[in-house]
Prior knowledge:
Blueprint: H1 4-8, H2 15-25, H3 27-47, H4 53-77, H5 79-106, H6 110-125, E1 133-139, E2 143-150, H7 152-159, H8 166-177, E3 183-186, E4 198-204
Antiparallel strand pairs: 1-2, 2-4, 3-4
Amino acid sequence: MGRPSQELLKGKKYDTLIAQLVDRLGTDEAAALWVRAERRLDGMLAQSKSLSEGEKLHVEMFVLPTCAIYFELADAFGKDEAFRMVEGYMAEYSANAAKTFKRIVALPGGRGLFMRAFGKVVGLAFGKRQGFENEMHECTPNRIAYDVLACPYHRASAQMGAPEICQFFCRNDEVCYGDLDGIRFVRTGTLAKGASRCDFLIERA
């Protein structure tokens, strides 16, 4: 059985990035960079042991792997290029995730299903136990409005020394929910961009 870092840094979401690395560095050096990212991630995972299980899931599955890759890319290509490369593969990941939501809302009754599921998921997967602080304003089958006042993605990326990558996680929301047929998604600010809160509005259009 491989190390946790090896499991976290594998999967189709990294295929395009790895192909770019092979093209720019060659197979051996690209593989060596990925091993260094795994080792870096091992150290980061050791620092997250004190987190609650719910918060750890978000931080270890998403924030820390992204930080580990970002730092290794920065060492190899410079920080600006590393930012662009991470932005590219995360944009592709978000676009693929958006396809799932588009298929859901296209089903008969899919918009209602999406709204009901979204309302439940906010509390179950993005609540206090997961390290979020939310202020719910409205949660009905047709309209969900709430603010995120504290977020483990924002907190952990800053603690790791890469607050600039948090915006990519925020952008995932915009890509996933911003172009759904019959669903309107509005957000005017995010913690990652310096706002006091991430405001969410999801409603039937």
